[in-house]
Model the fold of this input.
Amino acid sequence: MRTIGVMNQKGGCGKTTTAVNLAGALHARGRRVLVVDLDPQAHATLGLNGRALAPIARTVHDALMRRVGLDPVLVPVAEGFDLAPSGDDMLFAERDLGAGAAAEERLLDALRMTQRSYDVALLDCPPSLGPLTLNALKAAGEILVPVETSFFALNGVSQFLRALHRYRRSWLAEKPVRALATLFDRRTAFAREVIEEMRRFFGPALCSTVIHNNVKLREAASFGLPITQYDRRSRGCLDHLALADELLGEAAGQRHPPRDPAPAAAWRGAHGDRPGPAAEPASR
Done:
């Protein structure tokens, strides 16, 4: 099973939107998909559970605390597409998990003990570098970092990568890291400039697919559906299908984390405080 941790310590970067809709796109491409919602806010659960007839009884917290597989907590989204949900009890997971190497391996153990088989598991992480994110880092074979096309978001992801490097230096060397430009507004020169800066900073670790700002993605979330089940003709759906195709077409381990952990200095050195126009990236 290919396991992808979707993470960024900055909220509002499209992290959960990416996890939910990439999962939908991978399922539309014929893959068996699991989404594990590790965020106590439970937004991935809300974004995939719009057709639920009853409240969720058990969450990922139960599996982690009982040290069992995820099977008892799984909620079906579609045939071959399951959700391991989050809920209120996940607010206490960081306290309950404790610290130490064994505490960081509970999710990995739960995935190994899960009886149902999947092609891809997507781990939607909380916007922090706490025990739940560390569990995801341990369990994931690769990392996808959604980055909003803004200067503060680019600066924030550099801080996130530095923190990972300090805490578990080997993880960034061993696990492929990809960055994904999200919430892109092609109408603004500033967003286009940020895309160019992201290309310089991340190099080949930046996905060629760009996720555009699209109202249909927000509408789909409000109905508790992935975009592939809500509007297959929307730009948001086409973007996530392109992202799924890109990830499926790449061998794991092909990409590498960026070398330079400080894009802010490079930004100001090259551009000053006011960005100028840049060429618009090709549409996908």
Remarks:
- The chain has 13 helices and eight strands.
